[in-house]
Specification:
The structure holds three protein chains of three kinds.
Chain A: H1 5-37, H2 45-49, H3 52-62, H4 73-90, H5 108-129, H6 133-164, H7 169-174, E1 188-189, E2 196-197, H8 201-215, H9 240-265, H10 279-297, H11 305-333
Antiparallel strand pairs in A: 1-2
Chain B: H1 2-11, H2 28-36, E1 53-56, H3 59-62, E2 66-70, H4 75-84, E3 88-97, E4 102-110, E5 119-126, E6 131-133, H5 142-153, E7 156-158
Parallel strand pairs in B: 2-5, 6-7
Antiparallel strand pairs in B: 1-2, 3-4, 4-5
Chain C: E1 13-17, E2 29-35, E3 38-45, H1 53-59, H2 62-70, H3 77-92, H4 98-127, H5 131-151, E4 160-161, E5 164-165, H6 171-196, H7 199-205, H8 213-219, H9 224-227, H10 235-238, H11 259-283, E6 303-311, E7 314-322, E8 330-334, H12 336-347, H13 353-362, H14 367-371
Antiparallel strand pairs in C: 1-2, 2-3, 4-5, 6-7, 7-8
Helix pairs in contact in C: 2-3, 3-4, 4-5, 4-11, 4-13, 5-6, 6-11
The chains are: A mainly alpha, B alpha/beta, C alpha+beta.
Amino acid sequence: MDLTIFNAVIAVVIAIAFAAANAAYLVLAERRGAGRIQRRPGPNVNLFGMLQPPCDGIKLMTKQLMIPGGADKALFMVAPVLAMAPAIMSFVTIPFSDTIVAHSMDIGVLMIFAFASLGGMSILLAGWGSRNKYGVMASVRAVSQNISYEVPMLITVITVVMMTGSMNLREITLSQAGGFWNWNIFPVSMADGNFMLQPLMPVSFLIFYICSLAETNRAPFDLGEAESELVAGFHTEYGSMGFGLFFMGEYANIVIGASLITILFLGGWDCPLGLYPGVWWFLLKIYLLIFSFIWIRWTFPRTTIYGLLNLSWKILIPISLFNLLLTAGLLKVF
Amino acid sequence: MMKNIIKQALTDLFPSPGTVAEELGVETAEDEVAENGKKKKAKKKEDPPRVNGVLERDHAQYGYDIDVQLEPGELLAAVMIIDKAGFFIESITGVDWIKEKQLEVIYDFSRYDFDPCRVVVRTRTPRENPGIPTISKIFAGANWHERETHDFFGIKFEGHPHLVPLLLPEDADFHPLLKDFKP
Amino acid sequence: MSGPISIQPGETFTLNVGPQHPATHGVLRVKMEMDGEYIVQAETVLGYIHRMHELMGENRTYPQVLPNLSRLDYLGAMGYTHGHVLAVERAASIEVPERAEYIRVLMVELNRISSHLFWFGAFVMDLGGFTPLMYAIQDREHILDLMEAVTGSRLTYCYFRFGGLYNDVDDDFIGAVRAVIPRLRKSLKKYAALVTGNIIFRKRLEDIGPISAEMCRKYGATGPVARGSGIDFDVRKNEPYSMYPEFDFDVPVYHECDSLARYKVRMDEMEQSLRIIEQGLDKLPDGPIMPKKKPKLIKPPKGDYYQAVETARGSFGIRIVSDGSKNAYRFKLRSPTYSNMHLFDEACQGMMIMDALAMMGSLDLVIPEIDR
């Protein structure tokens, strides 16, 4: 669905604005959610805390940006930008509904994962550029975590792409239209009149969910910013807006992760009963998923680095590879 | 009972058996009378120094069972006996007896099992050039205790692997718990 | 999990954990030689909060030292002041009325629970679970409110006096304590379900930080650290003092020697303290809280006296060497965390830093107590 250049620019700007607004207000949602889980209110002054994110933004922007002496200035300054920019750019190709997408690309899936890998590099630059032993240790951990969890994620996505036959996010969603029994999370699907049985689809969903948690460095996989051990991990030396950009990048990644899960497995903008599909179903689904992310973060402690890597290499990858072979075989059959 | 076993083992260390040490508390009644009276400090007789040996103490009054006083040279042998008997090291500390010009080092050992016996080992060394062999080869926990005693009193523990200040700053050359310490 | 120990010189780097660090719970510095994530050697540097309480004990009269004791381990201050007053009462042969002793035991056990609750919250926070800290602190508030009503302080108590107490407890307090006990029991069950049964938590602690019983003996470790290694040593049972022989309670001992065992010991200890409190409330006799004949000036006879008590962290010992005057000649404090911390340097060799910090949390360190 190509628009004229002017409309395309407007669409991109709106996508970016959506990403930024989400990144800002998700912080508030997380703090309120954390508060309720911990039996306390969370920020609730000034209109239920709605003024908190703008105040935080103003505070971060007006603080002095300190660069540690001896730090590599170029790497130090580039890293936060590299954390934030790819996340926001990925929003361009996510379809919010049948007609609302900034620019629907035929290789949408590939593009999003390409940008996600760039995010991993930003952690490495941040840790190394800060000239801080804690930062280096944390970034080494975080990078090994990121690359380990990209593998099962991509294998699972290949499974879905094989079943759908296209990498275009909009078409993947359209193939699940018509009610929740068509969604990719369920083993039986009747898309386009073809009967398809794939018993391990819920397992794929679970693997993809866990990998999203790990890719976005959320607890229980938040070794990169393990507060109690490595002070603040790879962003120890970042003050004001550098820290702000990392933060916003993390939340933008969360929104993208939730959107991907929705699109690939939960039917995107599809209504559960197939009646009134629309953008509000999409938003409802991603916000429910984000609430589950927040819930998990404040409930579980952190895993160890070897537990984390073992989970990825010894458990998730074999299962997802088996899943891939099974899907290929079943596609031949049906 | 462990108390008797260890008392026997430690008494065997001393060549002349049957030494009777002076009870430290014997002078108490006379001291109190003297002080409650008209400040007869000048006439108060000094306690005779305690003779090396093993004493059994009343736990309810003192808090420990066996009280051993020995020379620094006999320290290692006594501590090895105590280690073989399965005691754990509780603490090591010092006392500055400035009037007698001696520094005393007190070792506390106790037991984990239900046969309670607390053994206190004391040894004295002159105030100038104090030196005592270290027991950190036998009890690894003595490492920090001896460093702390060195910090506070200036006692050199010969053979200690790393006798640098523990609680005081690294460049401290003063010893606060000596009685003639002026801050 | 032990890692590579054979490394070339120049391949390790020095990492300073502390003195300002979220995990060390106080000003403690551990200089670690690291090979990647593995610790080759660790050296603890103390003295950042050394205030020389022992010299203060020599420069003050016995009653003037009373507030000092609660500044040592501020989380479990009742136990320390208990040790001090028992030592001086033993030295000066002061009688204590029964009611005062029962109330002392009650207060010490309540304090033990509040100390363990705080340790629990901070420990799980170290491992990454931020929520149990909030729950634990909220539960602890109930106990602190009770203590404040009687003693006037929330944290650094100076409630005991030589011979008894300075303020009696009334029926309101007893009713309030009875009301708090079922609430705490419910919380303990919730922690068992939320934290102890969690697979991630167990994987973080099982087989992490092994401390053998022989190592405990060589270093003199006591308290939950020793009880997690299979040593059945609790001063309240092995060398009974105060009113503890009258109470019926168990001492939890686990033999696995890892951090999970130490964790379980402390969780069980909270339950046992609740039992003691219940029995204490039932048995509380009437009577005075200070003895009739109390010496105006406390001057213990010459000699040295030792008293050991079981605090939340282990066996706290206090030695008073007296020369008959109104100041102590030598005032020695034997803090349990000092001996427990000493283990760390040797035990953490070859571990990963995450595991070493988990083990440090399981040792339950309060740094002012180490440095005194």
